[in-house]
Amino acid sequence: MGKSIMVQGTMSNVGKSLITAGLCRIFKQDGYKAAPFKSQNMALNSFITREGLEMGRAQVMQAEAAGIEPSVLMNPILLKPTNDTGSQVIVNGQVLGTMGAREYFAYKKRLIPDILRSYQELERQNDIIVIEGAGSPAEINLKQDELVNMGMARMAKAPVLLAGDIDRGGVFAQLAGTLQLLTEEEKKYVKGTIINKFRGDKSILEPGVAMIEEITGVPVVGVTPYMQVDLEEEDSLTERFSRPGGKGPIQIAVIRLPRISNFTDFAVLECMEQVSLSYVSAVNELGEPDMILLPGTKNTMSDLKWLRESGLEPAILRAKERGCIIFGICGGYQMLGELLLDPYQVEEGGKMRGMGLLPVETTFTKEKTRTRVTGVFETLTGALAELSGMELEGYEIHMGLTKSTKDGGKKVARLAVQAQSEGAEEGQHQKSDGCHLENVYGTYVHGIFDGEGIAQAFVKILAKKKGIVLETAETMDRWQYKEKQYDILADTMRRHLNMEKIYEILEQGVEA
């Protein structure tokens, strides 16, 4: 049976996911078979496994760091917020239903057997399980039947490393305050603390490190720097939304919808030197980009309302008229159509006018499509004609069926589907996907830019359309790039963590 260690945080966005990934990579480098685990995740940025099951993207990133295939065992419960008080509840990769916060709070203890089954199976398969918590273990109003922080630590008998974020200030208060709010039994699980996101001269921090160890009685096992690594994130708190867009000549704008999902679709474009990609949430931020990307969303109808209220819809329509390429993925594709129908109240209920840029309409259904796909671009017309015939791969996650309303639009891709939607038999079949008309394109395929040469082809097309000659064709193997980033992460953490102490904590576990 594998040993376990858990990373908890003093609050959200302190770097738990990154620290977990780094530990997974270090253990892999040291010859162990490691796997990540998070009992309950809340995120809109999800992933479809080879079996057609849905899981949180952070655990996929951590599995890649560990060098293993992502499995829904690593994230048995996924909550995808549909509004401010409710979420779609996904258990073992499949939709259980949509629940309000109070309803789920009362229900969740019934999911403990699912959590234990997943964890114990991972425990049998691996040498080390690196468990990630969520938010803070000191949320005293939520401790009843808590199953993701100290509740999970108890179930797994896992020693805990508690991470605090010094970049936001008050890290010593974060660590001391969190420990003070834990029960005496819970405190026994905390075997080390980590001060994360440090910038500057560490010697200035050393008196504080000594004092916090004396105050808490818990050793500080590392002061990790603000790590400059480019890895996929799932959290809406990601800092990539506020980063400068870059200095490349090709301007790409991603509309930052309130319920944006799967923004990792654009990661490959972000790291290209020739591209300046920015996330836009107001008209005055849009400028005159060469391409506008409408991303996925957990609530298409609500976010389309926001698009209108913000003034971005007419701005996008004007951009289309001046020749800007408009490209929608999943919910963004649905918005580009003529009509949205919601007879089962999957989202807002009723019907809503779309943006009218593609001759399609979408009907929201009770069943969720979860598929991995491979295929090729169809014979395209317009600005993206050079993509015709190129191979692509990705996945679909959506609760809508989109069909053509009249002649005029053409399909974007021909796909081989590897897993069916919920309730359907497994197998493989062929289908067409998406629609394009003039300079507007839409598809359900997430990860469509990740295929070999596709991002580079987009950049070449945009450069040619803009009258720019690129001196060299930028080529990049996305997988090799990510592998390099995982190694940078692990090497940085090794330099700043006391790995000898962490291995000691792992070996000793938690006293009964």
Please tell me about this protein's structure.
With 512 residues, the chain is an alpha/beta fold. The protein folds into two domains: 3-231 and 483-508, P-loop containing nucleotide triphosphate hydrolases (Rossmann fold); 250-466, Class I glutamine amidotransferase (GATase) domain (Rossmann fold, 3-Layer(aba) Sandwich). Helix content is 31%, strand content 29%. β19 (339-342) and β20 (350-353) form a beta hairpin. The radius of gyration is 23 Å and the shape is globular. It starts with a strand and ends with a helix.
What is this structure's SSE topology?
Elements: E1 3-9, H1 16-29, E2 34-37, E3 40-42, E4 46-48, E5 54-56, H2 57-66, E6 77-81, E7 86-91, E8 94-100, H3 101-107, H4 112-125, E9 128-132, H5 150-156, E10 160-165, H6 171-181, H7 184-187, E11 190-198, H8 202-216, E12 220-225, E13 250-255, E14 260-261, H9 267-270, E15 275-280, H10 283-286, E16 291-294, E17 296-297, H11 300-309, H12 312-321, E18 325-329, H13 331-336, E19 339-342, E20 350-353, E21 360-377, E22 391-404, E23 413-417, E24 429-433, E25 435-437, E26 440-443, H14 454-466, H15 478-496, H16 499-508
Parallel strand pairs: 1-9, 1-10, 2-9, 3-6, 10-11, 11-12, 13-15, 13-16, 16-18, 18-26, 19-21
Antiparallel strand pairs: 4-5, 6-7, 7-8, 14-17, 19-20, 21-22, 21-23, 23-24, 25-26
Helix pairs in contact: 1-2, 1-15, 6-8
